[in-house]
Design a protein that fits this description.
The complex is a heterodimer. By secondary structure, chain A is mainly α. Chain A is built from 14 helices and 2 strands. The two termini of chain A are 14 Å apart. The relative contact order of chain A is 0.14. Chain B is built from 4 helices and no strands. Chain B is elongated and about 70 Å long. Chain B is mostly helical. The chains are: A mainly alpha, B mainly alpha. At the A-B interface, helix 1, helix 3, helix 4 and strand 2 of A face helix 1 of B.
Chain lengths: 287, 110
């Protein structure tokens, strides 16, 4: 499969989808900064599912009111995100999220500029890489509790994505400083915000356990060449897993693209991938 | 059952955009706090300070909550000659740390 037409097409299809969502948000940011009072030009923040999480408690407890800076659209995008997670796990992160796209493309640029070009640097972080991802759950807890208690977006001033969306306001707050740091670190690390701090990523990770489509490895078909592990941008040891359940995976499907053994790694709807199952479905799998 | 990678991509897009389009079609969509999903302009009712948004004017709030403008200006140490049609968000940081949030809190306590 490596380098064949289908894998190249899939990679570019993902880039195309990512680019389309990013472009949509960029044009909203530009239009809103040019015409801030035009009610027909919504703020890009109105499309952020994190706003839906922040306003959910107030919406439910008041019978339909939302906290400042959030609207019904935030809740709808959140529902759309949650449905996507239940079907395709972290596909939102890898295919749709504009902030994830920016970080990923910066990393690609970093590789092109020969800044830490040799794959993932996560392993070099050692224990830090093991425990730092817990921070996103802490941030989620703080954000939910803080917003429910105060009725305000307690996280907004620290949110780098919110700072990016209102970049034209040139507001120098903690979120802007975090944004600059995240963008710089993205040149050497894959998606640092998503991996360690994104509260939306925490929700996706928790709910993603219920996803009906998962990447599974068939140990019987797999030759354990570890090409998938070496190419995984999230640094997941795909070659040692039966099912990719790590919350670090952002469903880029690079492992599937790079796998040289047809059927060794694939997307499955429900059930478990077994060698027997695969042999029945893909008779040429062991050839 | 195996899922084709392109079907997977299509499923992600159809689910995500489908739900948003469906919500829009049923009128369950608003991207501005200035209008209800039915397109009616939102006005200050004077009953719940949490309804106060940054795009509302000082005059609108003063009228709805039946508070003299001078009282608001005195409390937050705002310039006496401030234009009452100034939006609250444009007054942020004026006087004694004025903000829509501070105004909401004050109205709740009052």
């Amino acid at each position: 499969m490596t380098g064949n037409k289908s894998s190249v097409t899939l990679k570019w299809l993902r880039y195309l989808i990512q680019g389309a969502f990013l472009l949509f948000i960029v044009q909203l940011v530009v239009k809103h900064s040019l015409f801030p009072e035009d009610v027909f030009v919504p703020s890009a923040e109105a499309y952020c599912p994190l706003g839906g999480i922040e306003t959910l408690y107030r919406f439910l407890s008041t019978g339909g009111k939302t906290i400042p800076h959030t609207h019904l659209s935030n809740l709808v995008v959140l529902i759309a995100l949650l449905a996507t997670v239940l079907i395709a796990k972290t596909a939102f992160c890898g295919w749709i999220c504009p902030f994830g796209t920016i970080q990923e493309w910066l990393r690609n640029m970093g590789k092109k500029l020969n800044i830490a070009p040799n794959g993932s640097l996560y392993k070099k972080l050692g224990r830090w890489d093991k425990y730092l991802p817990l921070l996103k759950y802490v941030i989620l807890g703080w954000l939910l509790a803080g917003t429910a208690i105060t009725g305000q977006m307690v996280f907004r001033d620290y949110d780098p994505y919110a700072s990016l969306l209102k970049i034209a306001e040139l507001e120098m707050n903690a979120g802007f400083i975090i944004l600059v740091i995240v963008l710089i670190v993205s040149l050497v690390l894959e998606r640092p915000w998503c991996r360690y701090f994104c509260p939306l990523g925490a929700v996706v990770s928790i709910l993603g356990k219920l996803s009906i489509i998962n990447i599974k490895r068939d140990a019987g078909t797999c030759s354990e060449c570890s090409i998938c592990s070496k190419n995984c941008p999230a640094g997941i040891d795909v070659a040692r897993a039966d099912k990719i359940s790590s919350d670090r995976c952002f469903s880029c499907l690079t492992c599937l693209e790079k796998c040289p053994r047809p059927g060794a790694l694939d997307l499955y709807l429900g059930g478990t991938a077994t060698a027997k199952h695969l042999k029945e479905e893909i008779p040429h799998a062991r050839q | 059952m195996r899922v084709n990678k392109f079907v997977y991509a299509a499923l992600v897009l159809v689910t995500f955009l489908g739900i948003i389009n469906l919500a829009q079609a049923f009128g369950w969509w608003a991207t501005s706090g200035k209008f209800t999903p039915d397109g009616e302009r939102i006005t200050v009712t004077g009953t719940d300070p949490d309804e106060i948004k940054g795009w509302m004017t000082l005059q609108e709030v003063a009228t709805a909550y039946k508070i003299p403008l001078e009282e608001i200006c005195n409390h937050f140490n705002l310039p006496a000659d401030i234009d009452p049609n100034t939006q609250l968000k444009d007054m942020e940081g004026m006087g004694e740390d004025f903000s829509p949030r501070a105004l909401r809190e004050w109205l709740k306590e009052r």
